[in-house]
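Structure first, sequence second, as always.
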């Protein structure tokens, strides 16, 4: 196997071996603490433009279950793991499947040490190469969410007779669509560039703002569209959707030091007794101090760092969560929120 080096923008370097012969990649280096569901993480469009480091030491131990992915392709720029097992009980071997999409699979990296470094220093840009050199300043301004979105309107479960949901696709996870279809909804998966007039022409009962990758402040047209929808239709946002909704109301967002990624994040009500274990994957958060005057209040908080995990405006019939209630492979604690949104459409 070829020796490769991941060089971070802070000058540190981390060595490993290419398991599929691919050695070149560049992107923001992030990590996940999840111990299962690696095919779903790799195909989550929220990871578009990122190098994904797995904390769990054993990755690839059941191959790639291609019928249970979050999209039709991997979105990560590269995968780093301590050990890749090469098993293929549920489909192709992970490293072979990644090779088909020209995504390097790197093994032999001390991922625990690398993740501790990222936790102390924050996320960094990185370049994976067999000829290590420092990454140049990367331009992160491109529209990663638009890149991950559908290019045309797609209708799921058409003619179901159930609620009509306009899903604004900023890089949606497939399980969000599955959860609505399972509840009998017709889902209109809308391109990220669709404007409010086009969305309203679909005659939706409610609008969902999806998850997705990148800095929400770059999504200027999308924020304008949501601002024009606020107060006109019931709105629900998930992950990036929360940030877009907050910006549309006039609030601010900021970059977290190293983001929240994994399936063990504790979230609690801002003013209540309930709490949940959640799946999360985001690098930005809403500034709670910017919410007064927007019509929104904080409804949920991260119990680790106190960051905003939910916002709500009863007057505007709009609310959002920062975590993933459609969590796939888990945890399933907050799946009831889909039912709460649908009840609110009546």
């Amino acid at each position: 196997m070829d020796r490769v080096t991941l060089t971070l923008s802070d000058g540190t370097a981390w060595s490993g071996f290419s398991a599929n012969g691919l050695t070149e990649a560049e992107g923001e280096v992030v990590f996940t603490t999840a111990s299962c569901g690696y095919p779903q993480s790799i195909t989550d469009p929220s990871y578009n433009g990122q190098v994904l480091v797995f904390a769990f030491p054993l990755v690839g131990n059941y191959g790639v279950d291609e019928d249970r992915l979050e999209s039709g392709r991997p979105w990560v720029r590269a995968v780093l793991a301590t050990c890749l097992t090469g098993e293929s009980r549920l489909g192709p071997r992970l490293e072979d499947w990644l090779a088909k999409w020209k995504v390097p699979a790197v093994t032999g990296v001390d991922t625990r040490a690398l993740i501790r470094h990222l936790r102390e220093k924050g996320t960094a840009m990185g370049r994976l190469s067999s000829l290590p050199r420092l990454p140049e300043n990367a331009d992160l301004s491109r529209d990663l969410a638009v890149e991950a979105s559908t290019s045309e309107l797609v209708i799921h479960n058409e003619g179901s007779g159930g609620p009509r949901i306009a899903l604004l696709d900023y890089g949606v996870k497939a399980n969000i669509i599955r959860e609505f279809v399972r509840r009998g909804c017709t889902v209109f998966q809308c391109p990220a560039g669709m404007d409010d007039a086009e969305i309203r022409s679909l005659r939706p009962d409610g609008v969902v703002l999806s998850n997705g990758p990148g800095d929400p402040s770059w999504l200027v047209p999308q924020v304008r569209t949501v601002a024009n929808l606020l107060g006109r239709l019931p709105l629900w946002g998930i992950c990036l959707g929360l940030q877009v909704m907050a910006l549309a109301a006039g609030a601010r967002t900021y970059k977290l030091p190293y983001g929240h990624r994994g399936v063990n994040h504790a979230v609690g009500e801002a003013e209540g007794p309930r709490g949940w274990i959640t799946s999360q994957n985001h690098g930005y958060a809403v500034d709670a101090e910017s919410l007064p005057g927007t019509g929104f209040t904080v409804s949920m908080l991260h119990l680790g760092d106190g960051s905003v995990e939910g916002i709500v405006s009863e007057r505007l019939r709009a609310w959002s969560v920062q975590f993933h209630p459609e969590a796939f492979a888990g945890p399933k604690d907050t799946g009831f929120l889909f039912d709460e949104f649908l009840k609110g459409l009546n």
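Margin note: The chain has two domains: 3-129, 144-343.
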